[in-house]
Structures are given as C-alpha cells and as structure tokens.
Design a protein that fits this description.
The structure is a single chain. This protein is an alpha+beta fold. It has a single domain, classed as Gcn5-related N-acetyltransferase (GNAT) (Aminopeptidase). It has helices at 20-27, 44-61, 111-126, 141-149, 172-178; strands spanning 3-6, 10-14, 66-70, 76-85, 95-102, 131-136, 153-160, 163-171. Strand 7 (153-160) and strand 8 (163-171) form a beta hairpin. The longest helix is centred in the first third of the chain and has 18 residues, at 44-61.
Length: 181
C-alpha cells in the first residue's frame, strides 16, 4: 500500500482494486452526484472502471485522486487529491485541480478540509506547483466553503457542458501564508 500523505485522522493512499465497494457506495449516491452531472454509477463494474481510470492517471501523470482512509477504523471514506487536467476546461488546461468526494454519512466531519490540506501540501512541496486550482458549481455551498477556507481566490464563472461552474486558484505564496510549513 503506497501512502502518499497522512493527517491526524486520515491516510491518503492510491486507490486499489479492493476499494471497489467503497467507490460503488460513493458514486452510486444521487446526493453525492447532485453537483457532479447527476449521473451516479449503478454497478460494481462501473466502480471498477472508475478505479482503473484513476490508476491510469497515476501511470500517465504520476498523480490522481487518492483514497481517504480513516486511521482508527481503516474505513474507506471517499477520495481527495490532485488531478492533472490536460483537456481544456473553462478555457484552461495543464493544471492541477483539487477535488474531494466523500460518502454521504461522512459529510460534515471536516474530512474534505483535512484531506485537501494534505493534498495541497503535496502539490506545493512535492510537485513544486506555482498554483493549484479548484472548481465547483455555484449551488454547492459545502464545497465552496471548503475552497474558501483553504484560501483559494475566485477567478471566474464559466460554462461547462451547459452548467455554470466557479473557478478558483491558490498560489503557492498565498498557501504559504495561510498554512504553516
């Protein structure tokens, strides 16, 4: 098991085939997918395909979303981390996007913020990024709250497949002034 980051409560590691039931529970939920195009998955085969898709990102880009595991219980909570965006989204490409997604029963416990801080540290310290970006749909208040708490600055609203999205950035110097190093 390749651990990429740890926090007081969490282990962040690469997704594995054994995470299939956790990914299925996560991505089968219509509430989880409310701001993600409203297309939850319906089979374990789709969950397996998602894991393979992310593992392919590890192989091609050296980075992708990570499984978030609770240290005490070993339970799969969801995923968090950075993804290299190579296809243009909102007129931009070739940037690291911060994302997080958690099983509904784990919402509101601070896991998104905690795992995102670890992901940002990895991106700025290990990957030497000058900036990291994030997006959200305007109605996703919980995600926007996390993005703002992390110190991201709003850049613009753009249309993505017919849905407005907010685009945010966090520069390395702003990250360094927000969090202790």
């Amino acid at each position: 098991m390749k651990i990429l980051a740890e926090t007081d409560r969490l282990i962040l590691r690469e997704l594995q085939k054994g995470d299939v039931h956790g990914i299925y529970e996560l991505d089968n939920s219509p509430r989880v997918h409310q701001y993600l195009g409203k297309q939850p998955i319906h089979t374990l085969a789709e969950a397996e395909a998602l894991i393979e898709f992310i593992q392919q990102q590890y192989r091609e880009n050296g980075i992708g979303r990570w499984a978030v595991i609770e240290k005490v219980t070993g339970e799969f909570l969801g995923w968090s981390g950075l993804k290299l965006i190579t296809d243009p989204i909102g007129g931009r490409s070739q940037y690291y996007d911060l994302g997080y997604r958690f099983i509904e029963r784990h919402w509101g416990k601070g896991y998104a913020t905690e795992s995102a801080k670890a992901s940002l540290a990895f991106g700025f310290r290990e990957r030497k990024q000058k900036a990291i970006f994030a997006m959200s749909e305007p109605g996703n208040e919980a995600s926007i709250h996390v993005i703002q708490k992390l110190g991201f600055s709003f850049l613009e609203t753009f249309d993505w497949d017919g849905t407005p999205h907010h685009f945010y950035s966090l520069k390395r110097e702003d990250y360094q002034s927000t969090f202790t190093t």
